[in-house]
Amino acid sequence: MHKLSTKKAFIAYALFGWALVLVADRVSELRVYQGATIAILTLAIASIILLTGYSGQVSLGHGAFLAIGAYGAAIAQSYWGSPFWFTFLIAILVSAAFGFILGFAAGRLSGPYIAGTTLALAVGLPTLANQFAFLGGETGLVYDAGSPPARFGEEFTLYKWFFWIAALVVLISIFLLRNLLNSRFGRNWKALRANPTAAALAGVNVASSKILAFTISAGVAGLAGALLGMISIVAPSAFPLSLSFTIITGAVLAGVTSLLGSMLGAVVLVVVPEIADAIAHRLGDSEKISTNLPGFIVSALLILTVLFSPNGPAEAMRKRREAHAKH
Amino acid sequence: MISLGRKKSVLAAVAVTSFALVASAVPANAVDGVSATEIKLGITVPQTGPAATGYNKVAPAMKAYFDYINASGGVYGRKIKLVIKDDGYKTQSAIDATNDLLLQDKVFALVGQLGTANHIAVASKVQLAKRGVPSLFLNTGFSEFADKSKYPTSFMHFPSYATEAKVLSTYIKDNFAGKKACLLAQADDFGDDAARGFATAGITFGETVRYVSGSQSSAAAAGWVQKFAGAKCEVVVTFSVTTATTVLLGAAAALKFAPQWILGSVGADPTTIRIASGNPQAAALLSNAISASWLPDAADTSDRFVKFFREVNAKYNNNVDFDANVMVGMNAGMLTVQALRAAGSNPTRQSLINAIETKGRTFVSAAFAPYGVSDSTHAGYTGFWIGKFNASGALSPVDTGRTIYVTDSAAGPVNKVAPKRAKLPAKGIPTNS
């Protein structure tokens, strides 16, 4: 077995992107919207995989970085008139800056203490929106991707436009992350996660590596937040505490060390409510069932994953392939 | 991490391409919402969360009226099905719920959407206009929703906040000239719209407090009261949601601050104030407060529309505590039935929009003020009567003739006219075409 070269990986990603464009052109609008959501969750989960799966730091409040990125992008667009595509860069920089600051704390903390710190951030941050009128209160800020270019025709819906933007941004980001994780930085983070003392003895600067991981992870999460704001709204209600838990759940289902698995985790998160709806419908449209069933199914999947495939199905498949190749 | 062999990479590429081509063959579905036996409508409202108190009655009341119509044969033989989604009064949830209504439930039209910010976000993000989805009888008074060029498929139900502000301004000038007036308003489009109306009417406030939506609390209200008391306000006007009005009146009572209250209609429902405060006697806080209304008072059982809606409420809505929210829901339901009838026996989304634009002004309803829709504006009702609350929370007209103050959202004059209302159709079932 060998990893794809950067060139081949680029071709694979481009092919996948092309396939997505073809699919989006033919499926219903609901599926296209769900596709955009999957793409955004994929990126959010990837930020957790970088942080937890590689550098070994746990964040329970990563939704806060999504919110910071989204608000950064929306403020840049609403108040400074920044072009839409440029606001993605703002989202990355603002949330990365917050990540950098939190990374300092993370450098001094470990395990549950980092988790607690990030959790506090996710709990406290949304309430700030109610304190400052320029953040729009509960109603939030509108962050507008604009209409699709006229040359795509009348039939080209806004949701397809969202999907195209989200898929393109996410594919590029995941490709860059893949290269980053395959680089010296990725190896340093892996060493850090496996044994910080051994990593330090091997010449890895533990503190700066942790801060770097936190900064990049926050930047990626911020970008995902801007994309989320694009398809919905930039308001406290778009970034509840449950969003942080949703992302972590997706990461665990994906296998927290597998970048490829992040898409699988995102698919599960989007598909499960639909399955639950179908079951609730069969059981007579019970509101109680349709409200509680998605949580029940995701929880069951989470337990099963931790019990039978703690590194996630994607990682399990990879190991099986490797074992098969050895024989 | 990606780690495929060369052969498997090729296979994966082939699989992806095949998947794409197979998926390409799946046709996209058309959305309609009208079948031979049913018309499916959708609404998103706060059924849970802090804003649910009171507002959670609107959709069930509308559904109750539709059930009553369905029991009488429906509209041209079709039963009306109302799909209700909870948005928790949150913009994000309103967008998600509307997406569900349009893409999954495939409703024909939206009806009675509630909340200014929610509908702005929904109209923009879900692109109601581009999709041609009618959004009927909005339960918000934001003036801009009347702008046909901006919201070509949305129709207002409530009179605008600017209209209400102009009406209240006239009353203040007539009755409280020379007194120091102050304003509490929500710091968003809701409050801005009202502020524009007051400015147009030439009212200036000695003290203005703006609160961010969601920040209202007893502690915050004590701060508002101290500001008003410090500024020696003699008349305090509110354009706030009911929870904000509730904490304001509670704090004022506790701090013994007793100006002449003039309460915007959105935040002055006594039943909701009772529930929001958790105090069955809280309606007494409203005693002597002035407010404006476009519907009859829910407690006025001598009104033929109130009497009829109460009967429907008893039979089809579990006889819930009858209040202004129930009236709003049923009134929107009655307008909707007339709109569907006016759209003809084979309605399309466009024919529904055309029908309201051309015939909406003739629709019968419980409102005392004229319905302002036309082919150039999608305005809701255009006026109010002024009333005073008693200690039990009933609102009675300040004058014996129940003068209706009619105006627009812009710079037009405020005209005082006698109330004029079409007769309730037999058994409350519209027969228009």
Tally of distinct domains of chain B:
2
What is the helix content of chain A? over 70%
The total strand number of chain B stands at 14
Question: What distance separates the N and C termini of chain B?
Answer: 65 Å
Major sheet characteristics of chain B: 9 strands, mixed
Structural class of chain B: alpha/beta
Q: With helices defined by DSSP (H or I, 4 residues minimum), what is the helix count of chain A?
A: 13
Could you report the average pLDDT of chain A, rounded to the nearest whole number? Answer: 85
> What's the CATH class label of the largest domain in chain B?
Alpha Beta
Largest interface: A-B, 51 and 47 residues
Largest sheet of chain A: none
CATH architecture annotation name of the largest domain in chain B: 3-Layer(aba) Sandwich
**Quaternary status of these chains?**
heterodimer
Explain what this protein looks like in three dimensions:
The complex is a heterodimer of chains A (327) and B (433). With 327 residues, chain A is mostly helical. Chain A has a domain at 28-146 and 154-240. Chain A contains 13 helices and no strands. In chain A, helix 3 (63-78) packs across helix 9 (206-231) and helix 4 (84-108) packs antiparallel against helix 9 (206-231). The longest helix of chain A is centred in the first third of the chain and has 26 residues, at 29-54. The mean pLDDT of chain A is 85. Chain B is α/β, with parallel strands linked by helices. In chain B, strands 6, 7, 8, 9, 10, 11, 12, 13 and 14 form a nine-stranded mixed β-sheet that branches. In chain B, strands 2-1-3-4-5 form a five-stranded parallel β-sheet, sandwiched between helices. Residues 1-5 and 16-31 of chain B have low confidence and may be disordered. At the A-B interface, helix 1, helix 2, helix 6 and helix 13 of A face helix 1, helix 4 and helix 5 of B.
